[in-house]
Amino acid sequence: MAPVETGTTVPERDRPGSPPSAAGSLEVGWLGRVDYREAWALQHRLVDQRAAGEIPDQLLLLEHPSVLTLGRQADEAHVLASPTELASRDIEIIRVERGGEVTYHGPGQLVAYPVIDVHARGLLIKPLVRALEEAMIETCARFGVSTGRRPGEPGCWCDPEGPQPRKIGALGLRVERGVTYHGIALNVAVDLRDFELIDPCGMPGVLATSIVAEGGAIEGSGTEVVARAASVFAGAFAGSIDARLIGVLPGEQHET
């Protein structure tokens, strides 16, 4: 994915056939821990519905069991573990439509899938990428971890300009019929040893980190920790694209 540009003002305008205020609304849903293939199929259904103007923009927030995903042109050589090792750990490799290289998903990681009609929202892809990065940066900051961007390397990084940059968030999108899907993966309290299975995002030697590993203060355990990060991310992302957040987040009630 190309380097991002600066953001843009997002007009609230609906396209013909969309529900009232569909372009301005962002409907958020916390799904908890969901199998990757199940969430993938759900994204496809929502893309169809959004392209038909049947639903407003969506933001799915969840956590996956351990899985490796490959972008449509990703090099399998960046999977370092043998098929036998992956099978012994019940970790599947799935090739999907998004751009980018191999990515690990697993417990302790926040995954966010924005299903957004960029034409209805008047939003270009590069500013959308920047908004997703900004939401990750704001989420890390809320829990006491300073992060930033690296030119030409989409995602979220700790010490991005320092001698040892560490990747804390990955990003990869797909756009069909003007609607986005796939999205971001932010390491909250993930077991970082699982990243030894791959060259994260196809970059040999890159270090993976998490909010907890960087000393972030976040209460709870298990999926509860990811849910707390999900609530912060949703608000930050909605603000970045000037969207009205609707739906229910863990522990929070938003206007419906």
Quickly give the structural class.
alpha/beta
Q: What average pLDDT do the residues reach?
A: 87
**How many H/I helices?**
5
Quick one: how many beta strands? 13
Element pattern in H and E:
EHEEHEEEHHEEEEEHEE
- Report the uncertain regions: 1-22
User: Remind me, CATH topology?
Assistant: BirA Bifunctional Protein, domain 2
Largest beta-sheet characterization: 10 strands, mixed
Please state the oligomeric state of the protein chains shown.
single chain
In CATH, the homologous superfamily goes by the name Bira Bifunctional Protein, Domain 2
CATH architecture field: 2-Layer Sandwich
- Terminal residue distance: 35 Å
Q: What's the helical proportion of residues?
A: 10-25%
Beta-strand proportion: 25-35%
CATH class category: Alpha Beta
Pick out its properties.
single chain; alpha/beta; BirA Bifunctional Protein, domain 2; three-stranded mixed sheet; 5 helices; globular
Question: How is this structure best summarized?
Answer:
The protein has helices at residues 36-51, 83-88, 118-121, 125-142, 223-240, and strands at 25-33, 57-63, 67-70, 92-95, 103-105, 109-115, 148-150, 153-158, 166-176, 179-187, 207-208, 244-249, 252-253. The protein is of the alpha/beta class.
Provide an overview of this structure:
The chain has 256 residues and is of the alpha/beta class. The protein has a single domain (25-249), classed as 2-Layer Sandwich (BirA Bifunctional Protein, domain 2). The chain is 24% helix and 29% strand. The chain is built from 5 helices and 13 strands. It has helices at residues 36-51, 83-88, 118-121, 125-142, 223-240; strands spanning 25-33, 57-63, 67-70, 92-95, 103-105, 109-115, 148-150, 153-158, 166-176, 179-187, 207-208, 244-249, 252-253. Strands 1, 2, 6, 7, 8, 9, 10, 11, 12 and 13 form a 10-stranded mixed β-sheet that branches. Strands 4-3-5 form a 3-stranded mixed β-sheet, with no helix packed on it. α4 packs across α5. Residues 1-22 have low confidence and may be disordered.
